[in-house]
């Protein structure tokens, strides 16, 4: 329990109705979760406006309301605080309520279109192996030391996030590695947190449904670096077109990694094979179990962060060379008939292109590449035709299928994808709506040594249709189809 007046540090109050000398049990942004003694913060969202639920929150026992527009009447015994931006206010209040957890840990944030989960997860594994108790906040799962806490978002809302960081502090974690999605930055989910360091992977086409323009998407990601403190480190990808712009205005100490230019953390690929990457990092030669050029970039970002966090470079490279990637990222298996199956979370045009380019480079001869791919519903529609054409261009056969249709008609999503196919691509492509059937068909089309890529869902264990998550696991289904071949 805390006093309301004690959790308002940094909150820009416009007006107050009532006394802030009251006890607060918890903070809620969803009226349906309000319990007696809570503060309810009204947020204007994409779908609804939290201000419409202020009365409901009061009925459920809220002792304080934080809003952008004061209601026309006030309930007795309830304090009303008006602020300019409730998204920002709830972030500061949550940080204060949970005793400023980010000040008590080394918090490293990772942003970029692709690679966040890979980088954050491997940093978590690396620092755990180096002997530290660590926290992880990621798309796949959150972790407090070895304890796994299911993730609902890539970056949780400010209240849940600060509660989670508090739990990490209580459990004795010294380092926390966290993905910072562009939605989270834009919605102030990470506002008020003190970052020891921040990493940028890359920025390519995604989420234009939400950010509207690519420039706005860049601006949002950059604002994360602009907001760092002077004692933090910021590490960026020099080979990405926006790599330097990202750090242009940051007060943090700047570092760059690169495969192509002179940089603080300079890598060179010596060999890129299915068995892993042989490369040099700052002139030290190491073999890694991760596959593909894009993972060479991820490894450089990870190495850079470890050095900035004060670890010994030989020790870091020794541990890093034994680590595997995050679940569902270039996850591969081989059937009894020697067909190679790869499950990968590529759900953007750039990720798909990188994964397929990597597969092409790994081929020894004329093996066919068969890609199964779909696009998510209620998300950026403009990436659909591009993903279909990329898949067709870089594969011998393509099976377009369903991903998470969410509230959209899956057939309409398929149609959007098909529009990206030119006549040559159409000859390589078939559409099979049922994802399990699509995977089965890919397996039936494959000969020994051929490579099947199942893209888009990676670690996901469900298919979301109309608000219901039906059990679905690309890896399990691919394995099942491989086993059927043996019978
Ligand atoms: C588009 C988006 O980001 N939406 C997020 C946003 O919800 P919203 O603004 O749409 O909320 P809303 O439904 O309009 O409601 C507004 C407010 O009214 C409240 N409310 C609503 C109903 C009610 O009865 N009572 C009530 O109080 C809601 O709790 C909310 O506070 O804020 C919510 C609380 O933080 C999030 O759960 C929600 O994530 C939705 C579920 C989502 O799908 N988000 C995805 C796009 C997302 O965030 N993805 C990124 C990763 C993207 C990447 O790959 O990079 C992530 O970080 O996970
Ligand atoms: N550095 C990289 N550059 C380009 N593509 C990458 C990179 N790292 C991974 N990928 C590709 O992107 C996919 C997603 O990777 P990852 O899950 O690490 O990204 P993410 O940024 O966490 O994604 P999300 O936005 O969904 O959280 C991988 O499965 C791989 O295909
Ligand atoms: N974090 C990503 C996940 C995309 C995964 C893909 N399977 C889909 O459903 O589109 C997003 O919210 O856009
Ligand atoms: Mg992620």
Automatic annotation (TrEMBL):
- Which pathway, metabolic or otherwise, does it act in? Cell wall biogenesis; peptidoglycan biosynthesis
Every Mur ligase central domain range: 110-305
Segments forming domain Mur ligase C-terminal: 328-458
Binding residue positions for meso-2,6-diaminopimelate: 379, 403-406, 456, 460
Question: Which residues are listed for UDP-N-acetyl-alpha-D-muramoyl-L-alanyl-D-glutamate binding in this entry?
Answer: 31, 154-155, 181, 187, 189
Q: Name one Pfam family in it.
A: Mur_ligase_C
Reactions mediated catalytically: UDP-N-acetyl-alpha-D-muramoyl-L-alanyl-D-glutamate + meso-2,6-diaminopimelate + ATP = UDP-N-acetyl-alpha-D-muramoyl-L-alanyl-gamma-D-glutamyl-meso-2,6-diaminopimelate + ADP + phosphate + H(+)
The record's annotation in InterPro entries points to: Mur-like_cat_sf, Mur_ligase_C, Mur_ligase_C_dom_sf, Mur_ligase_cen, Mur_ligase_N, MurE/MurF_N, UDP-N-AcMur-Glu-dNH2Pim_ligase
Q: Report the Gene3D superfamilies cross-referenced here.
A: Mur ligase, C-terminal domain, Mur-like, catalytic domain, MurE/MurF, N-terminal domain
Q: What is this protein called?
A: UDP-N-acetylmuramoyl-L-alanyl-D-glutamate--2,6-diaminopimelate ligase
Q: Which gene encodes it?
A: murE
């Amino acid at each position: 329990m805390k006093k309301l007046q004690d959790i308002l540090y940094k909150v820009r109050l416009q007006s107050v109705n009532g006394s802030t000398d009251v006890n607060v049990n918890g903070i809620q942004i969803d009226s349906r979760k309000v319990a007696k003694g809570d503060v309810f913060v009204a947020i204007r969202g994409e779908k609804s406006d939290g201000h419409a639920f202020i009365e409901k929150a009061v009925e459920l026992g809220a002792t304080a309301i934080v809003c952008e527009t004061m209601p026309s009447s006030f309930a007795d015994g309830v304090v009303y605080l008006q602020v300019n931006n409730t998204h920002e206010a709830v972030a500061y209040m949550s940080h204060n309520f949970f005793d400023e957890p980010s000040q008590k840990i080394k918090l490293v944030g990772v942003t970029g279109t692709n690679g966040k989960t890979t980088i954050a997860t491997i940093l978590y594994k690396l620092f755990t192996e180096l002997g530290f108790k660590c926290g992880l906040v990621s798309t796949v799962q959150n972790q407090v030391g070895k304890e796994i806490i299911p993730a609902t978002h890539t970056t949780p809302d400010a209240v849940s996030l600060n509660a989670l960081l508090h739990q990490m502090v209580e459990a004795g974690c010294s380092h926390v590695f966290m993905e910072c999605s562009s939605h989270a930055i834009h919605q102030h989910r990470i506002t008020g947190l003190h970052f020891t360091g921040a990493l940028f992977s890359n920025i390519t086409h995604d989420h234009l449904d939400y950010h509207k323009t690519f420039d706005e998407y860049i601006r949002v990601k950059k604002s994360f670096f602009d907001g760092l403190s002077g004692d933090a480190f910021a590490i960026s990808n020099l080979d990405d077109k926006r790599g330097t712009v990202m750090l242009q205005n940051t007060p943090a100490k700047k570092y760059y990694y690169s495969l192509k230019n002179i940089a603080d953390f300079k890598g060179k690929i010596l060999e890129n094979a299915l068995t892993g990457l042989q490369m040099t990092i700052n002139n030290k030669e190491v073999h890694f179990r991760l596959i593909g050029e894009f993972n060479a970039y991820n490894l450089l970002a990870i190495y850079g962060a470890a050095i900035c966090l004060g670890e010994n470079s030989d020790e870091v490279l020794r541990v890093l060379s034994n680590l595997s990637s995050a679940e569902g990222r270039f996850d591969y298996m081989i059937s009894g008939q020697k067909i190679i199956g790869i499950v990968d979370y590529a759900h953007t045009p750039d990720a798909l292109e990188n994964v397929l380019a990597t597969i092409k480079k790994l081929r020894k001869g004329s093996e066919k590449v068969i890609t199964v791919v779909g696009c998510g519903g209620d998300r950026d529609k403009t990436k659909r035709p591009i993903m279909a054409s990329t898949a067709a261009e870089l594969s011998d056969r393509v099976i377009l299928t369903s991903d998470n249709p969410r509230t959209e008609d899956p057939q309409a999503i398929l149609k959007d994808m098909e529009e990206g196919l030119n006549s040559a691509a159409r000859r390589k492509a078939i559409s099979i709506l049922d994802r399990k059937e699509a995977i089965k068909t890919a397996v039936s089309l494959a000969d020994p040594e051929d490579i099947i890529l199942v893209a888009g869902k990676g670690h996901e264990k469900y298919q979301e249709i109309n608000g219901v998550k039906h059990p679905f696991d690309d890896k399990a289904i691919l394995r099942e189809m491989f086993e059927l071949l043996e019978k």
